[in-house]
Design goal:
The protein is built from 10 helices and 14 strands. By secondary structure, it is α+β, with helices and mostly antiparallel strands. It is elongated and about 70 Å long. This is Hsp33 family molecular chaperone HslO.
């Protein structure tokens, strides 16, 4: 339910923190992350109360962005934007360097109603652009990569992005389901580590060995089921051991994930002050102007007299 904000600068969003949201792990020539949003999934998805297909897509996207952001060294936000031409015209997910997640989607209800409840990502978007952006603090350079949507699922779209934009082999599995205990979302990401240019590979045998190691890891990862991924009673370390016990896997320190929206009353007020008097008048209803944050669904109420040019 939407709450009205009159006096507080920041909305009172759910205080949900998952201390072990992401578990990184490493091999000789690859690295990976196991991501589980736990009850953070339900807190984020229920905020919007989107139709099933949109919520499922949103949960998978949240897992993807959390996993990708955790592998980067940056201060600011890492975001995914998918601009579609189908039932879903826009999906936006972002994650800060501290693991704070938020998202929203725009969709056409009539087009969505014509699709199956289990519609794939491609069926929802039809076609469009897959965009990843790193927006850093303190006016540092912004990095952005963009490719056309390719693939049937969100996992396949992300793999194709890295293949096309980064020339980096990766393996991704994402899962999001509505359970008796609420929504759950989880994922596993594997990335082949690029060759260090300072190291000279002396023989084709070494190249073939690295390829064999990568193929072995992806074959093992393919045995992972959605049930295992979403089973929060199954410890991260135990799951990773099940998958990769035949390899030399090392597990790193877990990283937290949390609910995070950076909207504020003061920021929205400054935006309102850029509008003309006529625009403000048309936005006003019963002497108030309401601005809703698309990420956290909070309504900020501004008395018209408060916004004086």
């Amino acid at each position: 339910m939407t709450k009205l904000q009159h006096d507080h600068d920041r909305p009172n969003v759910p205080n949900v923190v998952i201390p072990k949201g992401i578990t990184p792990f490493f091999f000789t020539s690859a690295r990976g992350r196991l991501i589980r949003l736990d009850n953070l999934t339900d807190a984020l998805l229920q905020r919007h109360n989107y139709p099933y297909a949109i919520s499922k897509l949103g949960g998978e996207a949240l897992v993807l962005v959390a996993g990708l952001a955790s592998a980067l060294k940056f201060e600011g936000s890492f975001s995914l934007q998918i601009k579609g031409e189908g039932a879903v015209s826009l999906l936006v997910v972002d994650c800060t360097d501290k693991g704070e997640l938020r998202f929203y989607a725009r969709f056409d209800e009539e087009k969505l109603a014509a699709l199956s409840k289990e519609a794939t990502a491609l069926q929802l978007f039809e076609k469009g652009l897959f965009v990843l952006t790193v927006d850093q603090k303190n006016d540092k350079d912004t990095y952005q990569g963009m490719v056309e949507l390719t693939g049937n699922t969100l996992s396949e779209m992300a793999v194709e992005y890295f293949k096309t934009s980064e020339q980096l082999p990766c393996w991704i599995r994402l899962s999001c389901e509505q359970t008796e205990d609420g929504w759950q979302a989880a994922g596993l990401i594997l990335e082949k580590i690029a060759n260090d240019p300072s190291i000279v590979i002396k023989s084709n045998d070494e190249i073939e060995s690295a390829e064999e190691d990568w193929n072995t890891l992806t074959i093992l990862a393919e045995t992972l089921t959605s049930t295992e991924l979403l089973d929060i009673q199954l410890p991260h370390e135990q799951l990773l051991y099940r998958l990769f016990n035949s390899t030399s896997v090392s597990i790193g320190s877990p990283k937290p994930l949390s609910y995070g929206c950076r909207c504020s009353r003061s920021r929205l007020k400054n935006i309102l002050k850029t509008f003309s008097q006529d625009d403000l008048h048309s936005m006003s209803e019963n002497g108030n102007i309401t601005m809703t944050c698309e990420f956290c669904r909070y309504d900020f109420i501004f008395p018209r007299t408060e916004i004086i040019q």
